[in-house]
Batch of 4 targets.
Target 1
Amino acid sequence: MEGLVDIYLPDFKCWTMETSKRLLKADNYTAVAMESIKAMQKQVGDLCFTSDGIAKKGVLVRHLVMPGREAEGANIVQWLAENISKDLFVMLMLESRDDHRLLCLNRPWELLVEKSDIQKLIEQSLRRS
C-alpha cells in the first residue's frame, strides 16, 4: 500500500486478549493492530492539513470506548503516544453518546462538556508517557 494511500483511518478496538476473544473472536487482535498502525505511521506519518484545514496525509486512529472498558481506551492511547507519535490524532467515540472527541496526543483539547471517566483516564495516561 506504500505510495498508494494518503490517509489511513484504522480502528484500534480493544486492548486485552479477553476482550479481543469475546467481542472480536480474535486471539491476537492487539498485536496485529499495533503492527498495522506502526506500518501505516511509517508510510504516511502524522496527520497534516492544507491551509484551509483539510486533511491531506497521515494517520487518524479511531477508538470506540465501550462501557465498562474505559481503562482499555486509556491503555491504547498511552501506547499510541509512547510508540507511534505524540502528534498522532485519535478520534474517541463514546458508546451511545454524541460527544465524540478528536484529540492530538501532544496537545490538550478543549472539553465541551464535563469530563468523562475515559477522558480522565486518558489525561492520566498521557501524563505518564
Target 2
Amino acid sequence: MDSASSDSSMARERYSPAPSTATSTGSTEAPTISMPGAYIADKEKTPDENSKLRTLMGILRKFIGVSDIASVRFSLPAQLLEPTPNLEYWNYLDRPETFISIGDSEDELGRMLAVLRFWFTKDLKYVKGKPCKPYNSTLGEFFRCNWEVEDSAPPILGEAKKVTATTSTDSTGRRVRVSYLTEQTSHHPPVSAFYVDCPAKGITARGFDQLSAKFTGTSIRVTPGAHNLGIFITVHSRDNEQYQLTHPAAHLGGLIRGSLSVTVADTCFITCPKTKIKVILHYQEESWLGKTQNRILGVIYTCDPQNDDRTRIKDVPEKDILARLEGCWTEQVYYTLIDSKESKLLVDLNPLFPIPKIVPPPTSQLPNESQRFWDAVTSAILNKQYGQATKLKQELEERQRVKAAERAERNEEWRPRFFEQAVTPDGKPELTEEGKKVLRGLQKEDWQLAESTVTGA
C-alpha cells in the first residue's frame, strides 16, 4: 500500500488546509493538530511506568471476580491516566485514506477487501503505541474533528473509479476531508455514539462504543458491551451498500511482568447484506511459550447473511468461498482468491502510523467539549502535579453525580444533544438536526457552535 505509507510522515507535519469548494465561515483562528502521545509511543519501560503498574495491580486485585469492572464506580488516581480524553482517543480512523477508498472498486469482492484493509488499519494506535487508560467520559461530553487525507489508496481488485460523490469529478490524488462527531450518550452503562462523514466520497460510518471488562488476576479481558453491535459503514455512492463490522474480544496482558500488551484471540464478522458477502476473521490463540505471533486467518464467502449462522472457517463450504486471508494483524495481511494459488498483499502496517486530527481552535471549543473540559486535569498531569490533577478530576466526577441526582429528583431523563437516543436496539445511532449541523460545519471548517443549554457535568 505504497500510497498509504507515503502519508505516514503526516504524523509529524504541520497541517495545511486542503483545497475545498466550501467557504470557511468559522473562527479566523487556525485549527490545531492533535494526536495523543500514546498513539506513537516509546515502548521502553521507565521506573515511573513500573511504579504505575504496581499501583494499578494493587487496585485491580480488589476486582477479581467482578463481572464487569467497566460498570463499577471507582476513580483511578491521576498518575495512572493517560492525559487524553477517552472520546478523542477512541476512534477507528487511524488511517482515514483506507476508509474513503472503500467504495472505489467496481467489483463487489474488491469493495469487501477494501473494508478489510480499513479494518486492519483502524487500530494502529495499539500496534504503534502503548496501551493506556484515558479519562472516563462524562455524560454529554463530546468531541469533534476533521482529518485531511490524500485520495490515493490503490484499488485492491478490479477496476476502480475515484470520483467525488458531490461533483462526479476525478478525486485521484486530491485531498479529502473526513469529519467526526462523538458524544457520551449514557453514563450507566457508559456508552458513546459516533458518526463519521465524508460527503466527497459518499461514505459514512456510525455506531455505539461500549466496553465490558473483567480482571482475571493476570490480565484484563475486554469485550464489546451489550449496546456495541459494531461499526456500520454505508457506501452511499454504491446505492447505500452497508457493512456491519463486529468487534472481537481482546486481552490486556503483561501486568505482572510490567510490560503491557494487547492480544486478540476471538472471532469476528463483516457482513454486507446487499452483496451477500460475509467474512469470518479468526484471531488465533497465543501460545504460552515463545514470542507473540498475532496471527489472523479468514475466509470471504457468499451466503444469505440473514440466515447464515456459521461462526467457524471450517464450516464454510468450499463452493461458497471467494478468497482466504492470512497473516499477522500487527504487520502484514495477505489474501488469496479461491481460483488462484498466489497470495497478494492486502495491507502492510509496518510503514504506517496514525494520522493526526484537526480539532477546533481552543477559543471555539465549548465547556463540555473534551479537550477544554479536561484541560486543567491534562495540564496538571503534564506538569506532574498529580495530587492537583486527582483533585480536579474528582471535582468533575462529583459535579456529574450531583447533576444526576438533581435529574433523578425531577424525574428527568437525560437526552443527548447530537444523537436522537442514548442507545438503539439496532446499534445504529441517528443524528439530531444539531448533530447534522455540526458535521456540515466541520466540512466547512465552521467551528462556531452554541453552548449546550444542559450539561451532564
Target 3
Amino acid sequence: MATKPGLFEDATPSLIKDSKGLYMVTQSTPNGQKVQILLEELADLYGIKWGYTVINIGTNVQKEDWFLRLDPNGRIPILVDSTKSPAFTVHETSAELLYLLKEFDKNDTFGFKDDLERSQCLQWLFFWHGSGAPYQGQLNHFGKMAPEKLPYAINRFRNETVRVYNVLEIHLSGKYTGQPREYLAGPGKGKFSVADMGTWPWVKGWEFSNVPKEEMDKMPHVLAWIARIWERPAVKRATGEKYQLDKLAEKFGKDEKGMVHVKEA
C-alpha cells in the first residue's frame, strides 16, 4: 500500500493533529530539557501556551511512521507549530531553541540583537551541540547502557567529556580575558540565553555520567554556573515532575503505547 503524503496519519495522536497552536513531543532527557526550559521561561515572560506529549524512547515509539513524518531522524524533542499553515515542524534541539527565540521572544530576552553578541551565542550553542553532547552521550551509553563494558570506549569518552567541560571552565573563568563570566554569551558577565539552555541540561548530569568529582573540583566556575541556573523557577519546572512520564501517568493516564498527552501546559 502506498504511503499517503502529509504531516499526519491515522496513528498520529489526536492532540497533535488537532492542535491549533504550539505542540511538543518530548521526554525529559537532557535534549528534551533544553526545549522544555525555554518554553517554561517564555511562559513566565510572555504567558505562551503549548500542548505536549511525553514518550518513552525505550519503547522505540519514536521510530514509528507517525513520528518519522514529524522528524525523519526519529529523535526527541519535536516541535509542531500549528499556528502556521500548513503546520510547521522543527527538529534538532539547537534549531528548536532558535525557532522559539525568533517566533516567541520578541524582545530577545534569551537571545541577542547585536550581531557580534548573537554570533557569540551561536558559537557556544553549536559548540555543545557538536562537541559536547555527542561525547557525553557516548559516555552514558558505554558506561551505563552497553551490554559489554569496554574500558577503551568508556575512558575515551570520559576523557573527551572532561576536556569539553574544561573548555567551558576556561571561558567562564575568564582565564584569557580577565573577565569571569556568569553565563556563556553576552557582554561582561553575560546573560542567561539559549547558549546556556543548550548546554546546561547535559553538564548538570556529570554525576550520572560518572565524571570524576576530582575533575569537577578543578572547574569551580562550571560548578557555580550549574548551581546558578538550577535556581531559576522555570528551570525547576522544566526538569521536574511536569515532564516526568510516571508522574504524568498518575494524573492523566497512559495511552496504549505508553505515552501521556497534555492538552495545554
Target 4
Amino acid sequence: MLEILGDEIQDPEEEVFLLFSQDIPSQNLGFVDSKATSVQITVNGKDLDIEQSPTLLTSTRPGGTTGAVLWKITPLIAEWISSPKNPFFEHFILDSKSIVLELGCGTSGVLGLALAPKVKRYIATDQDYVFKILRQNLERNAPPSTIPSTAMSNSKQRQKGKASLASQLYQYGNIDVIALDWELSSVSSLPDLLGDCDTGTLSTVDGVLACDCIYNESLIDPLVQTCIDICRLRSTSLAQNPTVCIIAQQLRSSEIFEAWLSAFTKSFRVWRVQDDLLSADLKQGSGFVIHCGLLRETAL
C-alpha cells in the first residue's frame, strides 16, 4: 500500500504551499444546504434521506454545533471509500473483517451507511448532542431488518483524568454509536466495548476515519491525541497490521491546516492520497484533500 501512495510528506509547510497554491473553487463554508431540515443524496446508487438541524447549527451550544448538518465533502468521501475500486480495499488494508471507527460522525450517518456493508463493524463516534438526529437517520436509511438495541457500560471510571467511554448507545446492524469527546474521553476501554462476546477476545480498530473535522485550532491537539491513543491500542495487541488513519477535509484556512499537519506529522508518517487513486470529485482542484497516516514507532 505504501508504494502506491507515493512520497511520504516530510515538510508540512511545503505540503501546505502545494495545496493552497492551486486554484481552489469557492465552496462557501461547505454545507450541502444549511437551511434545509432534510437533504436527499445518492451514494453508490443508494438513495439516502438525511435529516439535519439548521436550528442546532446556529445555536450557541458550548462545544460546537458543526455536526448538526451535512457537509459537501461527506457524500463524496462516502462514495469513494465504499466503491469497489477504493485503494484501501483493493490492497487489503481494509476488508470485510475490518473494524472502522469514525471520529466526528455528526448527525448524518452517511459514512457509516455507505461503508458498514463492506466491513465487519463500523463505530460512529461523536458528542452525544448529535445522537437524536443520527439515530433517526440510521433508522430511516438502514436496511429494514436492522433492529436498534442498547447496551450500557460503566461511565464513572476515569483514565488519566479522562472519562472512560460511557456506553455503546445504539446498534444498527453492524453500526455502533458510541459517545466520544476528544477532550474528555479516554479510549482505553475501547477494546472491552469492541470485544467478541462469542470468543471472549478483545478487538482493536483497523481504520480511523475523520471527515472535515479540522476547523478549529483548539481541537487539533485533542483530535491528534485521540488518533494516537486509538492507534496505540493496536500497537499493544498481537495484530500484524497497524491502524491506518484516513483524514479527509475541505481546504479552507491554510493556517489551521498547517497547524493540524504539523501536529499530525510529529506522531504519524503521512501521505497524501494521489489523484490516480481518487474519484473525479476529489482530485486536485476540487478543494478537497485526503491524507492517511500510520503511527510512528517513536510514538508507540
